[in-house]
Amino acid sequence: MHDSASRSRGQRLSATRFEPLEDRRLLAAAAFRDGEILVQFAATADAACRDAVRADLRGHAAETIETVGMRARGLGALERIAIGGGMSVDQAVQAAARRPGVLFAEPNYRVTKTAVSNDPYYTTSSRLWGMYGDDSPVASGPSGTTNAFGSQAEKAWAAGYTGSNSVVVGIIDEGVDVTHPDLAGNIWVNPHDPVDGLDNDGNGYVDDVNGWDFVYGDNTVYDAGEDTHGTHVAGTIGGRGGNGVGVAGVSWNVTMISTKFLGPGGGYTSDAVKALDYLTDLKTRHGINIVASNNSWGGGGYSSALHAAIIRSANAGILFVAAAGNGGGDGIGDSNDSVANYPSNYSTLSAASGQPAAAYESVIAVAALTSTGGLASYSNYGATTVDIAAPGSSIWSTLPGSTYGNYSGTSMATPHVSGAVALYASAYPGASAAATRTALLNSARPTSSVSGKTVTGDRLDVAAALNVAPPVGIGITGGSVVEGNAGTAPLSFTVTLSAAASTTVTVAYATAGGSAAAGTDFVAQSGTLSFAPGETTKTVAVDVIGDTAFESNETFTVVLSGASSNATIQTASATGTITNDDAQPAPPTLAISSVSALESAGVFVFTVTLSAPSTSSVSVRFGTANGTATAGSKGDYSSTSGTLTFSPGQTSKTISVSVRNDSTVEANETFFVNLSRASGAAIAVNRGTGTILNDDGVAAAAFAALAAAAADDDKPTAKRR
């Protein structure tokens, strides 16, 4: 047994150089697309922020990439920004990375396919040696098809394992000749987007019938004269077997999706991101049973964008099978432990910028073997970074135009492993991606040529992997129950095994509070479930406590842990919902008093009253308004506004308004304090009136009135006629 999870994958980022799979010499201009960079914006980056970044780069957006997977993760746009003003890629990366709202900036690396030789004169009878078995303990194929270092796929076929078209593999590569007689029956046809000029499945790609061409931006996944490599890879994964024609792939029956991102000059990481997110979206939104992506390509430096996309695919249960690389310009394989090779050196156990790590390792890095069991001279290796070896030299497979030929390289070893993933998934439909990866690596055969040069030290053995049943999966689902007014009511959680086990399976469980609290809303519970052989379902019933208090629906969870060694927890927790059945009481009301006082009082105090205590906070806005009195430094009072907040239980608050005391004789005047925008209560009285009673010159006025009256009495009266 081998602990492949212990591998360490280096992550190097260089803005001005890279280590391509085809050539380990350090190059500058050829490593990435000159004149542009990739910039990943945060979701909070608005148009002004993005404009500012482009302005710094004296450039413009050549392409804005917003895949479904990015949006689901809460990321902003990934932009290909064409840079100007003579700025270098290195300068642009540094300038963009400093701007707020930018998660990362990096070159748009160029990558290439990894086949390094094409020997058209290979004519021996052992053309498909990579599929052969060792005929032990009994012969598993016709005479002449024996090779101890083959993938042992022949043994699996003899045992009745030939695959299933319900299993899907994505080919991220060149395009695939979908009309080839050995491939046509295994090519995916999109059930959600018929050819009608519309994007029926809502993924942004119109009429993506067999996949998508990210090089030319259309739905034609095969372009004559270009797509030999992708077609060859497809034949090894899933060439139709038993049809008396050409070759047979590891999985005779499988469905393959072509996501073309490599053209005649290679491809770019920006398109690889789109291709990978395309597959992830098909699985997560439409339930397409994609179990692996085949990645027989490499080059460039570390890309946060691509790393994040690989993690997203891992979270969807898609394994990322990648070529280890074909050495440098000298044609001699190199150590990926010393100099990272991408994409095979990525690890989903480490986080990428903006994307947390996955719960398991989804990458399988593949080295190439020769037919005599040696590590191919061109094959990269790595005791901590390359997982397994598979047949990769002189591999015959399909080529465009109904033809066949042989290629060599880790490109050819990789589809042997992808085909094995598909075959395993057809034999064990409920197996998780992690369980499938473990079965393939732990069943591999020890091989001296790769001992100490791969994580396992082994080579692929398809037949042995099929004898490793995945551990039983354990999952839990929740439910809901009406709370009730008294007593308790059971809320049932269902714990299920993915398949009946031959031995007893145990798993612990315990409740955990959420918006519902243990002791108040439900009765805390914990224990251990035991599934006898043959049993697949158990129920955990949690008592919910009834009451008559109105409250929102509340939730809590039941969490699984500590599964026995013959099982693995696939869904660790489930939510239970307590549905409220109590009538909502009428909300309390707010009212404000009026105040009448002499202007010399200086301060008018208004009282705001809540009709009844509340169990939650209540707030209300207030503000003064002019009546006959006016606000201001030379007016009659000082304007004020704000928010009153009543804590649970409080029923009274005051508002103080300063009134100006002057000596001017004037009539009584009024102003108002208005309530608005209440939260948690209704407003019953929304206006309080402040009446300013004049208290200036009262005595003088009275004396003047008396004097005027006396003057009237002293006047002579007119004579009567």
Task: List the main descriptive attributes of the protein structure presented here.
Rossmann fold, 721 residues, 31% strand, Immunoglobulin-like, alpha/beta, disordered C terminus, 36 strands, disordered N terminus, 6-stranded antiparallel beta sheet, 3 domains, 11 helices, 7-stranded parallel beta sheet
The CATH superfamily of the largest domain is identified as: Peptidase S8/S53 domain
How would you sum up the global shape?
A: elongated
How is the biggest beta sheet arranged?
7 strands, parallel
Query: Which residue ranges are poorly predicted, with pLDDT under 50 across at least 5 consecutive positions?
Result: 1-30, 115-124, 699-708, 714-721
What CATH architecture of the largest domain do you see? 3-Layer(aba) Sandwich
Cα-atom radius of gyration: 38 Å
CATH class of the largest domain: Alpha Beta
Q: Give a count of the beta strands, DSSP E runs of length 2 or more.
A: 36
Overall tally of domains: 3
Question: Can you list the strand order of the major beta sheet?
Answer: 7-8-6-10-12-13-14
| CATH topology descriptor of the largest domain | Rossmann fold
Could you estimate the helical fraction of the residues in percent?
10-25%
Beta percentage is 25-35%
What is the mean pLDDT? 88
The helix tally amounts to 11
| Ends apart, CA distance between termini | 142 Å
| Global structural class | alpha/beta
